[in-house]
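Q: I'm writing up a methods section and want to include an example of the input and output format. Could you take the sequence below and give the corresponding predicted structure tokens, formatted cleanly so I can copy it straight into the document?
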Amino acid sequence: MSGTTAADGAPPQENPPTPHQADPEEDDVEEDGAGETAGAGGEGGKKKKKKKKPKKKKVEQSDPPRVGLSKLFPDGNFPEGEIQEYKDDNTWRTTSEEKRYNDRMAMEDPETTYQNIRKAAEVHRQVRKAAQKFIQPGRTMTEIAEYIEDGTRALVEGDGIDAGVGFPTGLSLNNCAAHYTPNAGDTIVLQQGDVLKVDIGVHVKGRILDSAFTLNFEPTYDKLLEAVRAATDTGIRESGIDVRLGEIGAAIQETMESYEVEVGGKTYPVKPIENLSGHSINPYQIHGGKSVLLVKNDDQTKMEEGEYYAIETFGSTGRGRVIEAGECSHYAKSHDAPHVPLRLTSAKSLLNTINKNFGTIPFCRRYLDRLGESKYLLALNHLVAQGIVQTYPPLHDQRGSMTAQFEHTILLRPTVKEVVSRGDDY
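A: Here is the clean output for your methods example:
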């Protein structure tokens, strides 16, 4: 993905033609067998060849990524994700004329979920590819978050309600499993022995692409990462139209618990974090109402055609259960926020800022800082107290344990299941 943006047109010539030196692309003439100029319209006339159009150079992504996708995909068609056929009683969908027709109609609609979420997925793939090289021990959490978010905004070509960052970049370390991103003044530096969850969100017209991976920089916890990645792939494989959510959780748990990690001569079983889950996604709503738990449960709710889900799993060497702890950074306006009178003028002003720039897309304090908001904590806490804004504090397993996360967004199309965020990396 490295490279610079190439300008359209022919490359500069090292030796430009002089008045006595013919330019082969401009003044080629045809000669007859005697070496005389063949006339097109009379004796001695010249016939010029049609001037060759210089080939346009392919636009490449820059490093760091800053070239918008409209330049890389000018036709507006973005790569399809990994295709998986439905299992068991749903295999008929692949060849059904009715379902194939429905799929084609959705494909041809320029405003469809498919192209919007595929665009978000391509942004995610390109940004995370660069981020995986950038993220190294010695970087601060703020440097990492801003690198990812600046790239996301540039590639998706938006920074607000129409398109932009889908939620604050999660950079949860070690026993912190989720919902940490640095606030202003954060001084945490990534260490060689850390296990870092990188959770990146991108949205296009409210269609949120949610995908995450885990990085470690020494082999101690390789098996933990392997277990969680395998469990996520299991969850994706088992998902499908009419599949019950509780059955997916049982399959995830079975895969996760087949792994163990040896640390300092002691063996730890890998446990699924029982009170975290994957989830359906609705337009402008990251948690759409359905949950895909990571353990066996009795939820008989079925997945439905046209829905899309974040299939994410979390594994831990600890107790396999998280609690809220630490300073909050993640916030979101409630999807069903009540209409209540606000007594603080500052709260009214802050709510206007939230409505204008985020709507119900999650945000963090750094995003308010970027917009020029200051001394807003009292107003923000007032919106929380009134039930208008929700908080999402960091989630931790027991101290000393390690946690990992892998996540993909899947789209339940009428004919097939599309893992839209799949890439060469995971």
